[in-house]
Amino acid sequence: MITNDELLETPEYWTSRIQLDLYSHLQEYMKANGLNRTQLAQKLGVTKGYITQMLNGNFDHRLSKLVELSLAVGLIPKMEFVPKVDFFKKNMPKPKAQVMDNYVIPPVNLMGMAFQEIDLNYEHGDIDL
């Protein structure tokens, strides 16, 4: 089984994420313009089969094709490169300690290490974090 940290290190994860983003934009464009798959294919200059593949998530574009498709539906493709540490700080929820059956479950990061020491003296419903 793969951990979250391991998954986020794979090219397949990031490729899929970009594909899902493109899929979402294509769906929105089709809906906003009242287009079916055949009409979208004509607009983009591709086959209906290609549109079907894209909408089924079965594609892996060259960067130039991604730019071409984005521009054709009125979008400017923007790619941003950020340090992984900054991405995780911005996008990962802050963990909270939980109490279950009078046991304190400390917050844990994705690497399995406790974020901070917790006073395990559980008195009167208070938890020292």
**For this structure, what is the CATH class of the largest domain?**
Mainly Alpha
Class computed from helices, strands and strand pairing? mainly alpha
Per the CATH scheme, the topology name of the largest domain is: 434 Repressor (Amino-terminal Domain)
- Poorly predicted runs: 109-129
Percent range for β-strand residues: 5-15%
Q: How many helices?
A: 6
CATH 4th-level superfamily of the largest domain = lambda repressor-like DNA-binding domains
- Helix coverage percent of residues? 40-55%
Spell out the key features of this protein.
129 residues, disordered C terminus, 434 Repressor (Amino-terminal Domain), 6 helices, two-stranded antiparallel sheet, 4 strands, 47% helix, 2 domains, mainly alpha
Tell me about this structure:
With 129 residues, the protein is mostly helical. The protein is 47% helix and 11% strand. It is built from six helices and four strands, in the order H-H-H-H-H-H-E-E-E-E. The strands form two sheets. It has a two-stranded antiparallel sheet with strand order 1-2. A hairpin with a 2-residue loop joins strand 1 (98-100) and strand 2 (103-105). Helix 3 (37-44) packs across helix 4 (48-55). The protein is elongated, with a radius of gyration of 22 Å. The two termini are 32 Å apart. The model is unreliable at 109-129 (pLDDT under 50).
